[in-house]
Amino acid sequence: ELAKGINGLDKIVLRQSRFRSAEVYLYGGHVTSWKNENGEELLYLSSKAIFKPPKPIRGGIPLCFPQFSNLGTLESHGFARNRIWEVDASPPPLPTYSSPNAFVDLILRPTEDDLKTWPHNFEFRMRVDLGSEGELTLTSRIRNTSADGKPFTFTFAYHTYFSVSDISEVRVEGLETLDYLDNLKNRERFTEQGDAITFESEIDKIYLSTPTKIAILDHEKKRTFVVRKDGLADAVVWNPWDKKSKTISDLGDEDYKHMLCVEAAAVERPITLKPGEEWKGRLELSAVPSSYSSGQ
Ligand code: TA6
């Protein structure tokens, strides 16, 4: 269902039941909302988010492509998150997870200007699928459609902002003992200790070659987010904490307490595609009640 969002921007509303729903803006191909069967919002979206190109939307699931962060010559996190995507009328076949159908296929192709800064023709297709159990699946397919015979290389992330009740009560499981690059220490490489990740200060780490399943346990809400990823080796964990938050104008000063970014990503080993080749990267999110309680 196509609808008008904030500032008249087009959005697609996916609905599975009265409350189970998701919203995707064509601006950025950006998922801004994901609600469970009780109508509770599962993604963090900043109340100060600016829904106005070229400023990317703060919260939800920004797409970082063709460059994660400032790891190259492009603007930080690339340009896919601040371009207007189109609905893809004839996507190549892909299995659907939702029944009844609640999915949309989007496509992004480079503009003339994009080709000046990143001279590679591509088709970036993304399906957003809201399943009957409320799970949200994003499947990206990126194809090199260049006629010049040249390969291209990119890095990528689903920069997902989860909504959490209290960041200091949250723990992340699945990243223990892994190597990571610490973005707060010149991307130096370290090894994580054996315990689940907890939060008491700013964090900006790129965990390398992680398992395909990561869990975010929200003790206070008694909710666990399960992140499953495919084709995306790494996982970025980010929370700006108090000081950094104050430097981010479209983020409320106290919002860091209620958000956590856990991002399925391909960073350490960039993806290279020859003409005609396609890469696929899949993210599946589910939110389940958890029996986890402190001390267990
Ligand atoms: O994924 C973490 C990160 O790259 C951080 O370094 C932080 O700057 C964040 O993304 C947000 O970036 P943005 O460009 O959206 O302000």
From TrEMBL:
One of its GO terms (cellular component) is cytoplasm. Its EC number is 5.1.3.15. Pfam families: Aldose_epim (PF01263). InterPro entries: Aldose_1/G6P_1-epimerase, G6P_1-epimerase, Gal_mutarotase_sf_dom, GH-type_carb-bd. One of its GO terms (molecular function) is glucose-6-phosphate 1-epimerase activity. GO terms for biological process: carbohydrate metabolic process. Keywords: Isomerase. Signal peptide: none annotated. The keyword Isomerase applies. It is an enzyme of class 5 (isomerase). SUPFAM superfamilies: Galactose mutarotase-like (SSF74650). The active site is at H159, E263. The keyword Cytoplasm does not apply. It catalyses: alpha-D-glucose 6-phosphate = beta-D-glucose 6-phosphate. Belongs to the glucose-6-phosphate 1-epimerase family. This is glucose-6-phosphate 1-epimerase.
